Amino acid sequence: MHLRTGWFLLRRLLSVLPGLLGVTLVIFLLTRVLPADPAVLVAGDQASKADLARARAELGLDRGLPEQYLHYMVRLLHGDLGMSLSTGHPVAQDLAQRLPATLELTLAALALAVAAAVPMGVLAAVRRNTVWDHVSRVVSIAGVSLPVFWTGLLLILVFYYALGWFPPPMGRISSLVGGPERITGFYTLDSLLARDGERLLLSLHALALPALALALVAMAPLARITRAAMVEALAADCVRAARAAGLPRRTVLWAVAFRNGLIPVLTTAGMVFSFLLGGNVLVEKVFAWPGVGSYAAEALVVNDFAPVQGFVLAMAILYAVLNLAIDLLYGVIDPRAQTVHG
Hints:
Structural class: mainly alpha
CATH superfamily of one domain: MetI-like
Shape: globular
CATH topology of one domain: MetI-like fold
Number of strands: 0
Low-confidence stretches: none
Helix content: over 70%
Oligomer: single chain
Order of helices and strands: HHHHHHHHHHHHHHHH
Distance between the termini: 12 Å
Radius of gyration: 24 Å
CATH class of one domain: Mainly Alpha
Strand content: under 5%
CATH architecture of one domain: Orthogonal Bundle
């Protein structure tokens, strides 16, 4: 069994490499065909043609595209993602500093979405064509219809300006207090590890609204897929057999039906998490959240391409790791799934 799992992991890891290679090629070409010149950021807007030519030579932009790409791949293999022209720091250092903020926000949003959408979908499936089913449909439609930046601005307007229940949208914690001592980079977790109740509450307070804005978007597909999976699972033979055996209703619902319909829910949760990772740029900008999304957006505005390439590559790696984790969970839920995928 352990040998089969190890072989499965090795095959999945090897299958990821061509995809990552394709990502590096696509993002490299896209940043090169954009009508922008990073040399202007180095030499300045008033630079002469000679200064711009010198800056391009320093950046390696005077070489052919194949040579530039080969040089880029050699640096990647050595763990060098390049230098950010706008911050003056290595891109790897900037990403390591900002990635925990993005992951904390994304995980919090996913946790909120799962905690609300899964019970909602189960309840809608059990009580079809009732008010609970209609509420689930409304949430699903609203989630896919409302732009996430508009939802974020609405939450700020209501809960900060109108009610004053939450702090201003100015990052992860008040600058007057400062973040906890860095251990993991997650402010909430670091505050818990340091047993700092004040910073924990402040971190949760600042995290609530941006996480809620993202969660409202994530709830829509999760609730819809959970309902569909549970409707199908409740009609399965194993559920009818469990009922005929006299098992308690709660056991039939959660231990038999829900587990039988868990794989599509898990797949959707993985897809939603991937979307949230790459699509929370707008929320980070609205709430001044210092994550990798806002970092890449700010770099793109000033034609600083190395951070954009680093951001896309980091998201691709996280996406690959997430898919691998989901495949492993398939094997836990249903051992036959690993045989199929393997």
